[in-house]
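hey so i finally got around to running the thing on that chain from the lab meeting. sorry it took forever, my laptop kept dying and i had to restart like 3 times. anyway pasting the input first so we r on the same page abt which one it is
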Amino acid sequence: MTQATPKATDELADGGMPFLEHLRELSGRLRNAMIAFLLAFGACWYFSEEIYAWLMVPLQNAWAASPNLTEPMEMHFAALLEPFWVYMSVALWAGIFVSSPFTFYQLWSFIAPGLYKRERNIGIAFAIASAGFFCAGAAFCYYLVLDPMYGYFLSFAVPGRTPTLFMTQYLDLTRNMMLGFGAIFELPIFIMVLAALGLVTHRSLWKFNRWFVILAFIIGAILTPSPDVVTQCLMAFPMIALYNVAIIGAYFITKGRERKAAAELADD
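ok and heres what got predicted. didnt touch it at all, straight out
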């Protein structure tokens, strides 16, 4: 029977833990994460109007740039409870975002003791890279995509036909766009995970590159509510760039795996 080597055993943070002890540890981590979320939710609820005002800046910029809209922009609500639920939704999503580092820390503290040192290092790098790419995608959407997209929508306004803006509809559209771009920017992480598992290589990814360009524009046309070419390109071009960045990452991963396999074959 094969036993774990002392070196491999030493790399584990803790030894074996009884099942009930695992459950108690998990419940404690979940309790801490919930407390952090409630605190973040309370703080974001206090600043929910300011957060919503920040989300409205792209629309205000597009409104001010529209030649046919000379009157001040107004935001309406169709039901008495709509502002309350809008600010509640803002506080909920902002609270999840603010408390997410502590939540992931609690999750990591629960699973890390059962991992080897190399696995822990990979997990930390993966979590940091995922958070960074997601935030970059949301920021890209907010600062570069929303202004021209809302400008296109407001271009339909003419004298005698002005838009009536509602709080819930605007929040849903802005939130979904930022979440969608955040998810799109996770593409390199997803592809490099596939490369690490040996499911794809840089060679296969490069062969599929020409088809991915077409696929990126199709996805951009589907995910962006605006039919104008500029907005669709603002989603398609980052996808194409991120795909090619992932090919570079897959190259190093595949070459490293091939060198390791060649060394093992030589040893045999």
